[in-house]
Description:
Elements: E1 3-6, H1 12-21, H2 23-27, H3 35-39, H4 41-54, E2 58-63, E3 69-79, E4 82-89, H5 98-112, E5 118-124, H6 128-136, E6 140-147, E7 150-158
Parallel strand pairs: 4-5
Antiparallel strand pairs: 1-2, 2-3, 3-4, 5-7, 6-7
Amino acid sequence: MPELQRLRADHAPALLAFERENRAYFAASVPDRGDAYFAAFDERHRALLAEQETGACHFHVVVGGDGEILGRVNLVDVAGGSAELGYRIAKKATSQGLATSVVRQVCVLAAAEYGLTSLRAETTTDNPGSQAVLARTGFVPAGEIVLDDRPGVRYVRDLTGPDVRPAATGS
Length: 171
């Protein structure tokens, strides 16, 4: 089972491979990161880790059993007990419940470890997979928006209720 891990320096090579392998797939639904992202990847990775140290963001990767990165789940713009959720899952790992599972895990982390009380998320209306993940994980629509000249929906998730707790583990 893939594991959600907080982003570390040693994730860089696998994360770069993940981004390269899935670039065209991601660009079909979200803006492409551009060539500069890949050219300056190591510098950007170091900057993200430094930003994470400030508490302004919490970056996570989804790591498969072989160390391969299968996804990213990030909480950015942390302020006032809230943050923006963003995630991307490798094409080969979609439609397996992975996105739903890791978003649920991040909601628990956000409340229990990071002290957040709410999350925000956005997606375009032509991304039904992302809309379904957000609905399954307790996000509710909070208004229409425009994302990169495309119609979208803003979502919110309250993290103060009893439904945000770690999953029970068997003994």
